[in-house]
Amino acid sequence: MKNNKSKIALLFLLITGHFLFAQIDKKATKETKNLYKNLKTISKSHILFGHQHALEYGHGWSNEPNKSDVKLVTGSHPAVVGIDFSDFSGRTKEETEKSKEALRKNVMNTYERGGITTVSWHFNNPASGGGFYWKDSISVPAMSLIKEGGSHHEEYKEILKTIADFAHSAKAKDGNLVPMIFRPFHEFDGDWFWWGRKYTSREDFIAVWQFTISYLRDTLQVHNFIYAYSPDNRFNNESEYLERYPGDNYVDLFGMDDYGDFGRDGKYDLEAGIKKLKIISDTAIKKKKLAAFTETGLESIPNADWWTNVLLHSLQKEKLELCYVLVWRNDAVSPTHYYAPFPEQISVPDFIKFYNDPYTLFENDLKNIYSAKFKLKHIYND
């Protein structure tokens, strides 16, 4: 069991439950509301560890039940499991249905185990070829076309209906809808995706974001989503971070994707990265919302002590309130494209230290995360 140095403070928070928070869906399911509140509790003194596509595939394997590289190393799945809605558009109906069924099993199994699902959306361009990336001479700037009044708005509504159908169908054995953290249009301040800043005006981005949340929440009656806003790291102050902010009624969680400050291409600027994490944490505290480090990692993890000397150090340098940190995927076939360790990878000993640190939480540390009776297992020795 982990030694928890913040036991008294966290127990007080759990007992009192006195949180002022501003979840945007007033009709959210009980489980979704509880998750939101419990994530806020966690962020006061801990952080959840997450891994993208953790249970779908890993380094050298795919589609094996109840398996993850993180579990192979630590004995526990990550607390937060990332999936993607990329196959919900630009695919045949059969391909989309196959993807929906696989993801449905994934999120229901994660819920049954007591873990949390977060959803990214590598959205294939609905108005041109090129997929989700921007490709010169192929891609078109489609955000202006999918907003209300745009030439592809009705098509966009049909795509959102596919997402809503999935949300409504993700029912666990207890009959409850599985809560998910939905993170659309991520890294929108970059120029690699077709919804990026270079190809989308501020006004069009905000209009599409507001319509997306309103249509899912209010028209299609999706009430098991928590909505996350996550640019990349191209900001240096709160004003720049909020340049495309759609408003307090359309965002539950403030995030950031940042690889560049944490070792990409051998370059480190931890001072800058920590400053940006402080900005999103402070913004969330001010606006009474959640914050998270929504994507990061070091490809191939060549730095053997990256987990403690870089990531954990950065997360603990300032007083941050972040509910989770998620590293990117481990490709099943690439020998170098991975962001979490697997058995015998060079950073495994350091990752075990990261896992054992009382600040970090994995799936085995959680109990009743969707309940008002939420506990951390290692506190209560359950």
Automatic annotation (TrEMBL):
What EC class is this? hydrolase
Q: What is its main location?
A: secreted
Q: Which GO terms describe its molecular function?
A: hydrolase activity
Tell me which UniProt keywords the record has, alphabetically. Carbohydrate metabolism, Glycosidase, Hydrolase, Secreted, Signal
Q: What is this protein called?
A: Mannan endo-1,4-beta-mannosidase
The organism is Flavobacterium ginsengiterrae
Give the subcellular location: Secreted
Q: Which reaction does it catalyse?
A: Random hydrolysis of (1->4)-beta-D-mannosidic linkages in mannans, galactomannans and glucomannans
Q: Which Pfam families match?
A: Glyco_hydro_26
- The GH26 domain is annotated at 30-364
Domain of life, source organism: Bacteria
**What Enzyme Commission number does this protein have?**
3.2.1.78
Q: Which residues form the active site?
A: E187, E295
The stretch of residues making up the signal peptide is 1-22
Family that this chain belongs to: Belongs to the glycosyl hydrolase 26 family.
